[in-house]
Amino acid sequence: MYISTVVGTVTPQQCAMIAQLSATNNRRDDVTGLLLFNSRRFLQVLEGPKDAVDRVFTRIHGDPRHRAVVKLREGLIDTREFGEWAMAFDDPARPSVDLKDKVAALLVQAGPSTRAHFIGSADMHRPAA
Ligand SMILES: Cc1cc2nc3c(=O)[nH]c(=O)nc-3n(C[C@H](O)[C@H](O)[C@H](O)COP(=O)(O)O)c2cc1C
């Protein structure tokens, strides 16, 4: 699990592109988890075989679209908290769906600490002016 800060702005269209590419790559690499973008910060959990998680994290870490990447948690787990890969962000095509509700729906299998991080981050959501 890491947190980072967006560089400049990332539009919902760009989010959708990150989501699409990541879904393809992560499925191929057996990586699951959740990526949240609250318009200012990213919060992501990556779970899967250690080598695969290390490889994708190295790619993500070097991505110029964000900075100040800080690892919050890392370790071996017995069971995945997500089991699939997903991204949640503010989508103007579905303005009525609150980011917090979207995230909550994706956290059904997650433990209390993971839930707290994601719900807290979704709460800090400030839609772009
Ligand atoms: C916040 C953030 C999260 C990302 N998460 C993933 C991810 O989970 N999986 C992934 O493959 N790429 C992710 N990316 C994109 C990677 O940084 C990188 O652009 C991509 O993996 C390159 O894929 P390619 O080698 O297939 O071109 C993310 C990018 C950002 C900015």
Automatic annotation (TrEMBL):
The record, for SUPFAM superfamilies, names: Acylphosphatase/BLUF domain-like
Residue span, BLUF domain: 1-88
Q: Name one GO molecular function term.
A: blue light photoreceptor activity
Write down the PROSITE patterns for this protein, in alphabetical order: BLUF (PS50925)
Pfam families reported for this sequence: BLUF
InterPro entries to which the protein is assigned, alphabetical: Acylphosphatase-like_dom_sf, BLUF_domain
SMART domains given in the database record: BLUF (SM01034)
Q: What is this protein called?
A: BLUF domain-containing protein
Q: What is the originating organism of this protein?
A: Sphingobium psychrophilum
